[in-house]
Design a protein that fits this description.
It is globular and about 65 Å long. It has 13 helices and 14 strands. It has two domains: 145 residues, Aspartate Aminotransferase, domain 1, CATH 3.90.1150.10; 231 residues, Type I PLP-dependent aspartate aminotransferase-like (Major domain) (Aspartate Aminotransferase, domain 2), CATH 3.40.640. It is an alpha/beta fold. Bound molecules: pyridoxal-5'-phosphate (PLP).
């Protein structure tokens, strides 16, 4: 390892470098088309954020630059509850909210509060890589349930739960991105959502509903949030301003039963005391002034256009080489090559020779490790780069098939 491994805690052996962050380092500042990252298009960022920030610093400086409560600025927490309700998430009288440093911190704190080494955590496959890393770090044992265009296959989940029960085991937690999933862009049907909630009741586990993308779907979708369908406070609803305002603010939130929120608050006290007070004031004003709604509308239009560009390019260049998911929202599509090529082994060549980057799919499949897959991002690059990037990937794959 390195010169300090003898000092490092055992926990560090569970750390995994995020492949995406490593790749971003490789592509930074170079003439490479990156379909690897997951950045918002900066054109969605609202110009008025500048004025709001100056106004806050003029009128409320003493508060906005000060330490604030661990669970979040009180007025902002009220605003967040209203905002979440306005978006169609039904909340119960026992629900409470905590503000976190991005939704990534929500996931981390939830894992810290709920997951002991050896606990079974149900995940989708493919799943959001950075969430899998959080649960792994806490010693979770994954049970992976495959997804299709309609989200997690709950009939398979049911079989798995029955099997676990027969072995005297049960999961503690299920982690899902049920709407506009990362990395597939799929959305769970209403029937499967209801089935999942029934199973959580029957087999007594909690559910994390991670929801960064549902506010800007590319087509009108009919669904109820898992939180809405949840009669007994089993769902922890997690969301973020990263895609609907600006990721640099690092503001996310979790809504769950107040007893769970209290645990999360205690965990947060030792992690970072509280999330940025200034960012909370900015996000609160952005909601009140309609800036978040305007950002959402820009996001919907812009990302739909780019999703379409990616779908067309895949159709044109990859139809004989692969299948891929058809995202109804979010930032990504997952590509499944028809041939048995390890995309991880090819990525360096893709970057150096073909000047295109993607994320090898393997780590989105923490259990089954599907190597012939890749995640492609369409939110950041302009449509012409998306087309060119896909064309280059197709050329690389064709070359490898011939070889
Ligand atoms: C599914 C999902 N969850 C959580 C996050 C973390 O986002 P943030 O910490 O910026 O809120 C992301 C970011 O891409 C994501 O796609």
């Amino acid at each position: 390892m390195d010169g300090y491994s003898r000092f490092a805690s055992k926990r560090t052996t569970l750390f995994r470098a995020s492949e995406i962050r490593e790749l971003l380092k490789l592509t930074e500042g170079k003439d490479i088309i990156s379909l690897a990252g997951g950045l918002p298009d900066p054109r969605v960022f609202d110009e008025r954020l500048k004025d709001i920030t100056s106004r806050i610093l003029e009128d409320q400086r003493d508060l906005a630059l000060q330490y604030s409560p661990t669970a979040g600025v009180t007025e902002f927490r009220k605003t967040l509850i209203e905002f979440t309700r306005d978006k169609g998430v039904k909340l119960g009288p026992e629900d409470d909210v905590i503000v976190t440093t991005g939704s990534q911190e929500s996931l981390y704190l939830i894992a810290r509060v709920l997951v002991d080494p050896g606990d079974i955590v149900i995940i989708e496959e493919p799943t959001y890589l950075a969430a899998a890393n959080v649960f792994r770090e806490h010693g979770a044992v994954f049970k992976a349930i495959p997804i299709d265009h309609d989200g997690m296959k709950t009939e398979i989940l049911e079989e798995r739960l029955r099997q676990l029960k027969s072995e005297g085991k049960k999961p503690k937690l299920a982690y899902l991105v049920p709407t506009c999933q990362n990395p597939s862009g799929s959305t769970m049907t209403q029937e499967r959502r209801k089935h999942l909630i029934e199973l959580a009741e029957q087999y007594d586990f909690l559910i994390i509903e991670d929801d960064p993308y549902s506010f800007f779907t590319f087509e009108p979708l009919q669904f109820d949030y898992l939180k809405t369908l949840d009669p007994n406070y089993r769902v922890l609803y997690v969301s973020t301003f990263s895609k609907i305002l600006a990721p640099g603010l690092r503001i996310g939130w979790t809504i769950a039963h107040k007893d769970l929120v209290r645990y999360i608050e205690l965990a947060k006290q030792t992690v970072d005391l509280h999330s940025s007070t200034l960012s909370q004031y900015i996000a609160m004003e952005a909601i009140k002034k309609g800036i978040v709604e305007d950002t959402i509308e820009r996001a919907r239009i812009l990302y739909k256009e780019k999703r379409d560009a990616m779908m067309e390019a895949l159709e044109e260049h990859m139809s004989s080489l692969a299948t891929w998911t058809k995202p109804v929202g979010g930032f990504f599509t997952m590509v499944y090559l028809n041939v048995d090529l390890d995309t991880k082994a090819l990525v360096n060549e893709a970057v150096t020779k073909y000047k295109v980057a993607y994320v090898p799919g393997e780590s989105f499949f923490p259990v089954t490790k599907k190597k012939n897959t890749m995640r492609l991002n369409f939110s950041y690059p302009p449509p012409e780069k998306i087309r060119e990037g896909v064309k280059r990937i197709a050329t690389l794959v064709k070359e490898k098939i011939k070889a």
